Each structure stands twice: as structure tokens, then as C-alpha cells.
Amino acid sequence: MSAFDAALAVLAADPNLGTDATWQRGTEPAVPLRVLCSSPDQLRDAFGTTLVQATDVLTVPVAELPDIAAGDVFSVGADILTVQHAERDAAGVAWRVLCQR
């Protein structure tokens, strides 16, 4: 385990930063794990009007979940989030997962 893996594990385990979630692909069994959640607003332009669109972004340790694909589902509390896109960070330690409610 690298220093980056260890640091991400500490952040995800922190009750103030990380949260419990489950990941599931199709009919496979659900996998419980800890994730970091953020919900940044994005500004979009539509016909000359600026719209604010809420997004859901999860940071998931690669050590806990080595493969994530579009269509996978995360359950975070009462929210069901469907993966739109997942990409690894530069160090290859975490997934940045863009989700849709």
C-alpha cells in the first residue's frame, strides 16, 4: 500500500468526510464500501440563460473497487446514484465517479 492509498483510506474512514455506500453492477451482489461524496453545482448555458445543475461526484478508493463502469449503481444513504463516467486519478489510487440521481 502506498502513502497515497493509506491517506485515502484514512479520509474515507473519517466519519466527517467519508460515508457508507454500496456498489452494484447488474444482478451481482452489492459491495459495501466507504466513499467521499461531493455535490458541486455546474453552470450550463442554455439559449443565453445560465442554468445551475447539481451533480454528484464520488471518490472511491481503487483498492476497494478495482473496476467501475457506466451503468453501475451506488446507494448512498437514501440516494441511488447511477454512474455516468468513472476515471482514475493521476496516481491511480482513486476513482472520480460522476453520477446521476
Explained architecture:
The chain is mainly beta and 101 residues long. It has a single domain, classed as Thrombin, subunit H (Beta Barrel). The protein contains one helix and eight strands. The chain has one helix spanning 3-13, and strands at 18-24, 31-38, 41-46, 49-54, 56-61, 73-76, 79-88, 94-100. A six-stranded antiparallel beta barrel has the order 1-2-5-8-7-6. Strands 3-4 form a two-stranded antiparallel sheet. The protein is globular, with a radius of gyration of 15 Å. The model has no long low-confidence stretch (mean pLDDT 90).
Mean pLDDT: 90
How does the major sheet shape up? 6 strands, antiparallel, barrel
**For this entry, what is the oligomeric state of its chains?**
single chain
Count of helical segments? Answer: 1
Please count the beta strands (DSSP E, at least 2 residues each). 8
User: How many whole angstroms does the radius of gyration measure?
Assistant: 15 Å
> What is the approximate shape?
globular
Structural class: mainly beta
Quick synopsis:
By secondary structure, the chain is mainly β. The chain contains one helix and eight strands, in the order αββββββββ.
Layout of helices and strands:
Elements: H1 3-13, E1 18-24, E2 31-38, E3 41-46, E4 49-54, E5 56-61, E6 73-76, E7 79-88, E8 94-100
Antiparallel strand pairs: 1-2, 1-6, 2-5, 3-4, 5-8, 6-7, 7-8
Key words describing this protein structure:
single chain; 101 residues; mainly beta; Thrombin, subunit H; 6-stranded antiparallel barrel; two-stranded antiparallel sheet; 1 helix
